[in-house]
Amino acid sequence: MTSDHQSRSRRRLTATVTDLEVAVQRAFLVGVQMPGMTSQQEERSLEELARLTDTAGADPVDQELVRRDRIDPATFIGSGKAEELANLTDALDIDVVVFDQALSPAQQRNLQKVFHCDVVDREALILDIFAQHATSRVGAVQVELALLRYNLPRLTGRGGELAQQ
């Protein structure tokens, strides 16, 4: 086992927030095929997502390609499909669900309620990889700034007790 692989196996996705005791997170990948996209394009994209997930330090266990005519504003993939995939992820003991497309903060929050685990999108995964591999001080600051900008709209609900009456 190379030293690079040993250090990678101890890392975890920093974009996630739960189950800090888990050494290597088990990831479930979700891709969405919209009209006009070929399944071959989306399968290649899911293969790339699996490589990105491995680079980030999680173990891609399984994946699902969901075909949709339009994006559901609440859960991106529809509540029925989300429930179906939640049952599958429960059976597979999944720690994090990774979506190939960008999720809005509301969609991410709703999906986390359904899946009962962390849900990240491709953008968060890439930012996570940059954060793990930033070596210079300037690079680390730039990645931290990008992470803060990404997380800003996802901070709703925190500090509600401090809100004006």
Word description of this protein:
The protein is α/β, with parallel strands linked by helices. The chain has one domain (3-155): Rossmann fold (3-Layer(aba) Sandwich). It is built from 6 helices and 4 strands. Helix 2 (39-56) links the parallel strand 1 and strand 2. Helix 5 (122-133) runs antiparallel to helix 6. The model is unreliable at 1-10 (pLDDT under 50).
Tell me briefly what this model is.
This protein is of the alpha/beta class.
Task: Name its key features.
165 residues; alpha/beta; Rossmann fold; four-stranded parallel sheet; 6 helices; 15% strand; globular; disordered N terminus
Helix and strand arrangement:
Blueprint: H1 3-10, E1 26-33, H2 39-56, E2 59-67, H3 79-91, E3 96-99, H4 105-115, E4 118-121, H5 122-133, H6 137-151
Parallel strand pairs: 1-2, 1-3, 3-4
Helix pairs in contact: 2-5, 5-6
Gross geometry: globular
Specify the CATH class.
Alpha Beta
Could you name the ranges where pLDDT drops below 50 across 5 or more consecutive residues? 1-10
Structural domains: how many: 1
Strand content: 15-25%
Helix content: 40-55%
Walk across the major sheet and give the strand order. Answer: 2-1-3-4
Count the strands?
A: 4
**Order of secondary-structure elements:** HEHEHEHEHH
Radius of gyration: 17 Å
Structure annotation, total helices: 6
CATH architecture: 3-Layer(aba) Sandwich
